[in-house]
Amino acid sequence: MSPEPDYQPRYPGSDRLKGKTALITGGDSGIGRATAVLFAREGANVAIHYKDEHEDAETTLALMRDEGCDGLALNGDIGTKQEAKRAVEETVKRFGGLDIVVNNAGEQYAQSNVTDIPEEQIRRTFDTNLFGPFFVVQSALPHLKAGASIINVTSVTAFRGQDLLVDYSATKGALLSLTRALSSKLAEDGIRVNAVAPGPIWTPLIPASFPEEKLAKFGKGSPLGRAGQPNEVASCMLFLACEDSSFMTGQTLHPNGGDLVGG
């Protein structure tokens, strides 16, 4: 990608996640990588899960090691219950517990015409973007204690849609509803469930999803006039993962460049 996305944390760590263990899906690149590196800087044990981008995952692990974190990388299809369970169990086995779950893995495929969206694509998108987070949460709950945090990465498209990403928008709307339902369900257990809804963020998913003519204008329609960087979303993840947000559940943060959306 040119320019390269900015993954590096902006500030020195302050041990806000010291002694905590986090599992981040889609942690090999983009928002997931920036979150993994920031969590590592803040003292967490971090496991990343990814599909098959081995080189990207190794880069993320190296960045985490630079922060003093000997992280764990796991790969497979997070859209299956078996793999979601394995990811959780391997994380717990390695680090002795689980405190933070970040459901970040996502797929999107631009299609101009709704009638052209193949059934296979719809099912694949829902598997990764919605069923994966559901399965991860199901597998994680037996290990989560009061004070734990679940963070779901939804999207601005959950609030205003996106003409080229109809199926993707549908999954992100469902994930938003899942966040709200889970937050109510798990509140009595002291487990917080929140969401982050990024707008136009410059990640590898963008050039892989959109035609060339769209890339030159990507993000320029936001009130701030530019696309965001992964490290500008990672700070939202940190806030929701640590005790700074101890009185927040069922909420959504909006790093989207100023796009005013309801909810």
TrEMBL record:
The keyword Oxidoreductase applies. The keyword Transmembrane helix does not apply. InterPro entries: NAD(P)-bd_dom_sf, Sc_DH/Rdtase_CS, SDR_fam. Its EC number is 1.1.1.47. It comes from the Bacteria. Keywords: Oxidoreductase. Pfam families: adh_short_C2 (PF13561). It is an enzyme of class 1 (oxidoreductase). GO terms for molecular function: glucose 1-dehydrogenase [NAD(P)+] activity. Gene3D superfamilies: NAD(P)-binding Rossmann-like Domain. Belongs to the short-chain dehydrogenases/reductases (SDR) family. PANTHER family: NADPH-DEPENDENT ALDEHYDE REDUCTASE 1, CHLOROPLASTIC, NADPH-DEPENDENT ALDEHYDE REDUCTASE-LIKE PROTEIN, CHLOROPLASTIC-RELATED. This is Glucose 1-dehydrogenase. It comes from Vreelandella zhuhanensis. The lineage of its organism: Bacteria, Pseudomonadati, Pseudomonadota, Gammaproteobacteria, Oceanospirillales.
